[in-house]
Specification:
Elements (H helix, E strand, L loop, with lengths): L2 H13 L6 E2 L2 E5 L10 E23 L7 H4 L10 E27 L7 E2 L1 E3 L5 E4 L21 E2 L19 H24 L8 H23 L1 E13 L7 E8 L3 E4 L6 E9 L11 H6 L1 E3 L1 E16 L2 E20 L3 E5 L6 E6 L1
Antiparallel strand pairs: 1-5, 2-4, 2-13, 3-4, 3-9, 6-7, 7-16, 8-9, 10-11, 10-12, 12-14, 14-15, 16-17
Helix pairs in contact: 3-4
């Protein structure tokens, strides 16, 4: 083999890290300490836990009836809408755990500067999270376990709210007081019709389907006339989504604010009462003697790869002193970073936690 061909083969062996084998020792360095363009290699990341929290909110539009000023006169014991407004109700919270690349656990692997004959074959997901080392193409394609969050902040849901608007009255040359009297008389007629339908001498009892249809229609007409006095409430359900990255430094975060009059606002701005997310580690990894963050960030390591042991944590979402949601889940970044030696072995990583799930020695 001539010198040119030899150099080409050696270059390929030094730079190819997915789907090929590298006959060289590698060095792992914390990503922030790498100068771009000065070394040949690649980056890999461990996953961090991101919480997708969906808040289900009911929004009710209150429409004042065109004859509301006469409501207390004709229906003195019934509540009515005095002015138009929108009411909001926080119904529930739902949580989904996502895995995204952790910028504080991203590392650079370089070749060619160290001595040795370790054989490495790296498998990296498109988002940079490491999946395996030394395993070739034995793994199947990754599914949705490392899904990226979408930027959505409010998603309307299917609503059974009636259409807005009021029944039209023939108002030519009539005052509002006259229209109110006519509407009240119409309501009384409809109620009498319902009573007669139930108790009167008719043939409807022999045909339940026709009876129910007529009764339902009379009921709908009565409600339409009543809404002229009492107003209408049209409700729809929306989902507001926020994304939270728990941290060791801040155990409780304000993620949104909510007001029954102003609604839901993401972040710390806006009016209303804060919605908080508290993440408390349960210290399952407290007994592990892990390297310090300073040692991880300042040193380089030959033939070693970082992996993570995640921490079991209690996550609680609260509003106005009440718990909307509370779950125990694994939070990656609250755990510890450790180093695994690599000497012609096979390492399998959990792409949702960064933990080593399988180690095979060759």
């Amino acid at each position: 083999m001539n010198k040119t061909a030899t150099k080409f083969v050696l270059a390929l062996m030094a730079l190819t890290f997915v789907g090929s084998q590298v006959q060289a020792q590698f060095t792992t360095t914390f990503a922030k300490n790498v100068n771009p363009g000065q070394q040949s290699g690649f980056y890999y990341a461990l996953p961090q836990t991101m919480l997708q929290i969906d808040f289900v909110v009911e929004e009710t539009e209150c429409e004042q009836g065109p004859l509301s000023e006469f409501a207390s006169s004709y229906f003195p014991n019934v509540e009515y809408i005095e002015y138009g407004a929108t009411e909001h109700k926080l119904v529930e919270a739902r949580m989904t755990r996502l895995a995204t690349p952790d910028p504080n656990a991203t590392f650079f692997v370089s070749f060619g500067n160290a001595r040795g004959s370790a054989k490495a074959e790296f498998d990296i997901l498109p988002n940079g999270i490491i999946r395996s080392v030394g395993c070739g193409n034995t793994l199947s394609e990754e599914t949705v376990t490392t899904a990226e969050p979408s930027p959505s902040t409010g998603t309307p849901c299917v609503s059974d709210a009636p259409k807005s608007g009021f029944i039209n009255l023939v108002s030519s040359g009539k005052s509002d007081a006259q229209l109110a009297r006519e509407a009240a008389n119409r309501i009384e007629d409809l109620r009498n019709a319902k009573y007669y339908l139930i108790t009167g001498d008719n043939d409807m009892s022999s045909n339940p389907e026709t009876f129910n249809a007529m009764y339902q229609r009379i009921e709908e007409m009565e409600q339409e006339y009543l809404s002229l006095f009492l107003g209408k409430r049209n409700t729809r359900t929306v989902v507001k989504t926020v994304y939270v990255i728990p941290s060791k430094e801040v155990t409780t975060q304000t993620v949104a604010k909510f007001s029954e009059t102003e609604g839901f606002t993401s972040g710390t701005t806006g009016s209303g009462t804060p919605i908080t997310v508290q993440t408390l580690p349960l210290n399952a990894t407290a007994s592990i003697n892990a390297p310090s963050q300073t040692a991880i960030e300042s040193l380089s390591y030959d033939n070693k790869l970082f992996y993570r042991v995640p921490e079991l944590s209690n996550v609680k979402v609260s509003y106005q002193g009440k718990t909307l949601l509370e779950e125990r889940i694994v939070v990656n970044q609250l755990g510890v970073l450790l180093m695994a030696p690599f000497t012609n072995s096979k390492l399998f990583f959990d792409t949702t936690t960064g933990q080593i799930t399988n180690l095979k020695m060759q």
